[in-house]
Amino acid sequence: MISGWFFAHFTKLQPDVVFMNMSSPMTQSLVGVWLAKRRRIPSIIYIMDLWPESFQVITGISSGLILRPLGKMVDYIYTRVDHVLTSSYGFLDVIEARGVPKAKLEYWPQYAEEFYIPLDENTLGKDTRIPTDDRLKIIFTGNVGLAQGLDLLVPVAESLKKAKCSVSFIIVGDGSYKETLISQVTKHNLTDFFIFIDRQPATEIPGLLAQADAGLVILKKSEIFSKTLPAKVQSYMACALPILVSADGEAQRVVLEAGAGFVAPAEEIGPFVDAISSFASLSKEQRRQMGTSAKVYSDKMFQKDTLIARLETILATIGKE
């Protein structure tokens, strides 16, 4: 923050508009606020992570001595920016409840990059780490952390094993919980149900998705996570991949609205096993149609050119105010 303060107050840059891309931590956005104030120019912030709520959930810190100052900082930022964009529709009400005028808020979802396209698995060089047998292949891509709630997959896999439902969970990525998850899988004799692949370049992901039957979206039960739309939803949809959801709120809403898959409440074993079983019972043509619905929704709601055009309009408009 100290170096940011010096940059904002002494840089020779003279922009027309300040655009802040806010994931975490939100303290980084103070630099943009200070610069905009100094130059007397408009500013826009893009919220991809709610603060201080996400900070509280991830760290487990609930002390008012820490959360109250963070809340005041967040309000300071919201008060001083001219426009607030959010990556999730569910964020709008939360931010408005902090006193931000509705007219200042706008939903601007993330989009998948151009290389996220449907690929024909029959024309791909098969990844030998993914079996070519008849098991239902459910793929997860991204951070393997505690927030993702992947620990649920162990009892889910046990239930599927008892039901003689042949499934392979393909976990692509790294993170703080990965080694623990692998240990639990081994401890419960579930290695036949899991395949672990290290983090891959983003450009390699569509090829892996093409070898799967469904994409997995999973999150812990939390009010803040229920407001979040994980970016993997857009990636799966752009690749015409059906989606299985174990999460609350926004992820469920989007998948159901698109007709792109089956959903279950966060951290509930039985309903998620039922969702997987329901998907497994579909014919290949029904799964293909579900993937097509995902792609149609993606092209309508998450199309890059359309979203960029809207952002350019916002920047041009706010720059004239």
Could you characterize what this model shows?
The protein is α/β, with parallel strands linked by helices and 321 residues long. It has 2 domains: 2-111 and 303-320, Glycogen Phosphorylase B (Rossmann fold, 3-Layer(aba) Sandwich); 121-301, Glycogen Phosphorylase B (Rossmann fold). Helix content is 44%, strand content 14%. The protein contains 14 helices and 10 strands. A 6-stranded parallel β-sheet has the order 7-6-5-8-9-10, with helices on both faces. The protein has a 4-stranded parallel β-sheet with strand order 1-2-3-4. Helix 1 (2-10) packs parallel to helix 2, helix 6 packs across helix 12 (269-280) and helix 10 packs across helix 13. The longest helix has 18 residues, at 284-301. The two termini are 29 Å apart.
